[in-house]
Amino acid sequence: MAAAQGHLSDGPDDADGEGTPSVFRQAVAGLQGVRLRPEIELDATPPPQRLAPYSYALEAAVVVDDEELADGRLILLHDPAGHDAWGGTFRMVTLVHAELEPEMAADPLLPEVCWSWLTGALEARRVPYAAISGTVTRAGSHYFGGLREREPSTRIEIRASWSPAVPPAGPGATGVPDTAAHLSAWCDLLCQIAGLPPGGAPEAGIVTLPQRRGPHSR
């Protein structure tokens, strides 16, 4: 992935198309204005076309010493007519991947812990959200034949979606969710699953995955 380190570069999206709602353009602008940790490489990418009338997508990777430790995709959806399952007009959708150390992969509570990282990241940023749902999948690989020298590996995958809350109507209300805060929380999740300490320094009470290093790590 060719990406801009620490910030979001220009890329394909539905934000500037003819008839694009102003609230969607503002929501996308919020994503494009976020400054991130230098370990995060972030780029816009073609969004899905069938999930909502308007969509914007970005992909990210956590890279340390030229090694990719985690990667993911975040999609902003907008349906001006509203969506019953969303409880509103906006929805965030994500897919996150990371490889695990063997001892962490064997933890029976790993799925619950990884899911708590997502909700915890949103709550730590004080990002209001609703109707969250998703899955945590743990997949193991064993290698044979010409690949038999490779050590077994385990990969964690988080798929999730949630509805970003729109500020209540009133003086100065724009009807646009704080997408910048949602992106920042999502990047916190990426860094945590990659094994990086919060903010680049250890923090009491925070558990992260050990960084997976070696000739077969991603």
Count of folded domains: 1
The level of helicity is 10-25%
- What fraction of the residues are assigned to beta strands by DSSP? 25-35%
Low-confidence stretches: 1-14, 200-218
Gap from first CA to last CA:
13 Å
Global outline: elongated
Strand count, sense and barrel status of the largest sheet are: 7 strands, antiparallel
Q: Going across the major beta sheet, what is the strand order?
A: 1-2-3-4-5-7-6
Overall residue-averaged pLDDT value: 80
User: Could you give the count of β-strands?
Assistant: 7
H/E element sequence: EHEEEEHHEEH
In terms of quaternary structure, the protein is: single chain
Pairing-aware structural class of the strands and helices? alpha+beta
Please count the helical segments. 4
Rg over CA atoms, rounded to whole Å, is: 18 Å
What's a concise summary of this model?
With 218 residues, the chain is an alpha+beta fold.
